[in-house]
Design a protein that fits this description.
Rossmann fold; 20 strands; alpha+beta; 2 domains; 325 residues
Length: 325
């Protein structure tokens, strides 16, 4: 009787469920435990550059990111980013058909599909995909976005608020060089429901506009990169400045809106709770649970708010010291 020959039947996998993701790292992204699986060592490195060593701050939500990098080297690196889109608990981030992400914000699950060149461009991936997804997903459930830099002195946090170009990154960097603790440079997250108005941020990277080179000579010689927004940017890893002390969270005890003026001494001008809330709310993206976000911002505004009118960084830092003595 002839032996029976078994022939393997090809697996029909039109949705690429079967793609192998042999690489894994576990980090605490913004304090939330994250499991990241991928087929690219560049993605592992990008995740660890941002969050390795960051402590666990939250235990009631975890994140799982699955990052699939194509093996098609003919695909171009993503060079642009369409505005993120969301409905309900679903978030979509996209550059083109070869570079996109879909996120379930309720479950904390995200799936990324990238070209190899995009994975190798770790700065782009981190800033526009990885961190973008982390912040939006955690704002959905636990945190509230505040367009501000975060610094602290003597355990007392100060938020430096303002529109893009107001000087948040330059002033927070200068404060950190003068002995302040650095939390983040442009987007701090307020823990909703925290009676002490706790804020958290990513401490590893800062992004400066090219104009910052005129104010901060220590940044000279760094490459100015063109970001997807079309703006020139200088990315700095805070590890390169060992004198900068980094902390991941602090209670906010003052909200300061920056106003660079051409003349006069640096000074703090108190503003009302309603005015502070109105300014904070203008920078708040429309999301689910907007009333909870607004309540968190109003609670933050009640801590005490000021407008800082200043011309140069040294004078501004001296005035800020009065808030945390």
């Amino acid at each position: 009787m002839p032996e029976e020959t078994l022939v393997a039947t090809p697996v029909f996998d039109p949705f690429h469920y079967g793609v192998e993701l042999p690489l894994e790292t576990n980090v605490n992204a913004l304090g939330f435990p994250m499991r990241l699986v991928t087929n690219s060592p560049d993605i592992i490195r990008a995740a660890e550059e941002s969050w390795a060593g960051y402590p666990r701050l939250f235990t009631d939500k975890s994140l799982e990111f699955r990052v699939i990098v194509s093996d098609d080297e003919s695909l171009e690196c993503a060079s642009d980013l369409f505005p993120s889109r969301a409905q309900g608990h679903l978030l979509h981030i996209m550059s083109d058909p070869a570079n996109f992400a879909v996120c379930d914000m309720d479950r904390g699950l995200a799936s990324f599909w990238l070209a190899p060149a995009t994975a190798r461009n770790r700065e782009f991936f981190r800033y526009y995909y990885f961190l973008n997804a982390i912040y939006i997903m955690t704002w959905h459930t636990h945190l509230t976005s505040v367009h501000a830099a975060g610094i602290a002195r003597n355990g007392r946090g100060v938020l430096l608020c303002g529109e893009s170009g107001a000087g948040k990154t330059c002033l927070s960097f200068a404060c950190a060089r003068r002995g302040w603790d650095f939390i983040t440079d442009e987007s701090v997250s307020l823990v909703r429901g925290s009676p002490e108005r706790m804020v958290v941020g990513g401490t590893r990277h800062m992004h400066f506009r090219e104009s910052a080179l005129a104010l901060l000579p220590e940044l000279h010689g760094r490459l100015a990169r063109v970001l997807a927004t079309g703006k020139l940017s200088v990315e700095v890893n805070t590890n390169e400045f060992p004198e900068i002390r980094r902390i991941v969270q602090a209670p906010a005890e003052a909200v300061v809106f920056l106003n660079r003026t051409p003349g006069g001494p640096a000074r703090l001008v108190p503003i009302t709770v309603q005015e502070a809330f109105s300014r904070l709310e203008r920078e708040l993206p429309l999301m689910e649970q907007m009333e909870n976000h607004r309540a968190a911002l109003r609670h933050l505004a009640e801590v005490g708010a000021f407008e800082l009118r200043y011309r140069n960084l040294d004078d501004a830092i001296t005035v800020l010291e009065s808030l945390v003595r």
